[in-house]
Write a structure and sequence with these properties.
Distance between the termini: 9 Å
Order of helices and strands: EHEEHEHEEHH
Structural class: alpha/beta
Strand order of the largest sheet: 3-2-1-4-5-6
Strand content: 5-15%
Largest sheet: 6 strands, mixed
């Protein structure tokens, strides 16, 4: 028996509503704690498994709160690559809303690419933004989340 159940933490300010809906249903289905961290009040379903933490506005405040509270084995939903790297350093796992699981094996490459793209933008190169969030992104996220939770429940 585990000392503490898996907690799922969400950088809720940047998380698409459809992903939050998937997370709400998953938290209820498997009875796992889901914590949404945001700098503005959120409407969430009434549930003993779902709660919110309101943080002050500001750069990386929600990310820093999650990094402070996450424990080894927890799952964090974030599109912020430096935040994902912090989570991994603490023994947690990070999943972005498009379904990409950040791991100790791939996080450095993601950080390097992020920094490279930032350097390009700083020199005036137009790099564009991320593609529009799609149905396939939603499906990829749901599948990856399900695999992660199933693996946790079997351990």
């Amino acid at each position: 028996m585990k000392d503490r159940p898996l907690h799922i933490w969400v950088d809720a300010d940047a998380c698409p509503a459809v992903i939050k809906d998937i997370l709400y249903r998953a938290a209820e289905r498997v009875q796992l704690p889901l914590v949404l961290v945001a700098n503005k009040p959120l409407r969430v379903p009434s549930s003993r498994n779902i709660r919110t933490i309101l943080v002050p506005g500001g750069f990386d405040v929600a990310d820093n709160k999650i990094a402070e509270l996450v424990q080894a084995g927890d799952l964090v939903i974030t599109a912020d690559i430096p935040s994902a790297a912090d989570v991994i350093k603490k023994g947690g796992h990070a999943l972005n809303p498009r379904g990409e699981l950040y791991t100790p094996e791939n996080i450095q490459q993601r950080l390097t690419m992020r920094n490279f793209m930032g350097d390009l933008r700083n020199t005036g190169v137009m790099t564009g933004g991320p593609p529009t969030f799609s149905q396939s992104d939603r499906l990829a996220f749901a599948n990856q989340l399900d695999r992660y939770i199933t693996k946790y429940l079997k351990s």
